[in-house]
Automatic annotation (TrEMBL):
Keyword DNA damage listed: no
This protein's name: DUF3068 domain-containing protein
InterPro entries, sorted: PorA
Biased composition (Pro residues): 349-361
Region (Disordered): 334-361
Alphabetically ordered keywords of this record: Membrane, Transmembrane, Transmembrane helix
Skewed-composition ranges (Low complexity): 334-348
Pfam families: PorA (PF11271)
Transmembrane residue ranges: 301-326
């Protein structure tokens, strides 16, 4: 085999190996939640929020902040990784227009970096127990029902696929989530009063439903010093999820937490202590679309385009090497004078001998 063919075979093999390494070694390292993931989504809307300080002081006029413009930020940041598991800090903060913080909550999730589902926390790390998706969908999201973790009720509920549609130049899958039940989020419960002192009932009675007011009057002196409070939570969510990267492009969410008073052996719903309706701001949507586009280009380049180009080049180079090796060699041309002919041209025939007896010329 010619030396040039051997060189071409080696080059072709290296190109094929590079294609395999890129697709099956490098790509799986980026086809998952990155270790430097740090994303903040901003929402705007309006809401009503309990003012615990006003209730404690008997200030009924300010006990409930009703229909206030609110800005909500949610920051999800990977704080550590161990193999295929990421530990993620998920912080939500709601502020009124004057800067007053009316809601603040932080969860820590242990997430499988590929499926985005729950994973065991790595050794030495602590995480909130959960099941299903929390901060987003996996890369290459499928048009099916996923399990989604509702932190308020501490239960996994269905994230139902509704439809696929174009969204600002991206292909998006629309999912909806509905969750309802007793409020069980320990961090949110810690921020709400566990009981209502009977001494402040008169100040806040006007906020209570008529049937509860009547029941309180009928009980009168039999009321305890403090009435136990319980809470129920209802969340509705619609998300436009980027079909390629799994990033949320736009999310619209409503949550209502209703307080209930324990009266005469029953729990009476009294008033919403948290109620808001929010959606991503335009700037937040634009940033999400930009992030999804950039991530999509990288995924396509390293997962499809580059491996395919290297594969085709490798096959072509190997084919060229085989063709060059099998191609017949040319024989060298004959050199002058080898046949015995004079250099000046063909040799003239010898003159015949004269016949016997002929006179000499």
């Amino acid at each position: 085999m010619r030396r040039s063919s051997i060189v071409l075979l080696v080059v072709g093999a290296l190109l094929l190996a590079a294609a395999g390494v890129l697709r099956f070694a490098v790509y799986p390292q980026i086809d998952r939640l990155p270790s430097n993931y740090d994303r903040t989504a901003t929402y705007s809307g309006s809401g009503s929020f309990l003012n615990p300080a006003a209730i404690a002081s008997g200030n009924a006029a300010n006990a409930l902040l009703i229909d206030q413009p609110v800005t909500v930020t949610r920051r999800a940041k990977v704080t550590g990784t161990s193999g295929s598991t990421a530990v993620v800090s998920d912080q939500l903060t709601a502020r009124l227009r004057n800067g007053t913080t009316v809601l603040s909550n932080v969860h820590v999730w242990a997430i499988d970096r590929g499926s985005m589902d729950a994973a065991p926390a790595p050794g030495g790390a602590s995480a909130d127990p959960h099941q299903g998706l929390t901060i987003g969908f996996p890369i290459g999201v499928q048009q099916r029902t996923y399990a989604y973790w509702d932190a308020g009720t501490q239960q996994a509920v269905p994230a139902l696929f509704q439809r696929a549609e174009a969204f600002r130049g991206r292909s998006a899958d629309v999912f909806t989530v509905t969750a309802s039940g007793p409020l069980k989020d320990p961090k949110l419960l810690a921020a709400l009063p566990a009981s209502l002192p009977t001494s402040v009932l008169g100040a806040v009675a006007s906020l209570l439903p008529p049937n509860v007011q009547s029941l309180l009057k009928s009980l009168g002196p039999a009321l305890p010093a403090a009435l136990a409070l319980s809470y129920t939570s209802t969340t509705k969510l619609t998300g436009w999820i980027d079909a390629g990267t799994g990033l949320p492009l736009d999310v619209r969410q409503q949550q209502t937490v209703v307080a209930g008073l324990s009266l005469a052996g029953t729990t009476q719903p009294v008033l919403p202590v948290i109620s808001y309706s929010i959606e991503n701001t335009n700037d937040s949507i634009n940033q999400a679309v930009h992030d999804a586009t950039s991530a999509g280009v990288t995924l396509t380049l390293l997962g499809v385009t580059a491996p395919l180009v290297l594969l085709v080049l490798g096959v072509l180079v190997i084919a060229w090497a085989v063709w060059a090796a099998l191609r017949p060699r040319r024989r060298p041309a004959a050199s002058a004078g080898v046949s015995g002919a004079p250099a000046g041209g063909p040799r003239a025939p010898d003159s015949p001998d004269p016949p016997a007896g002929a006179p000499p010329v």
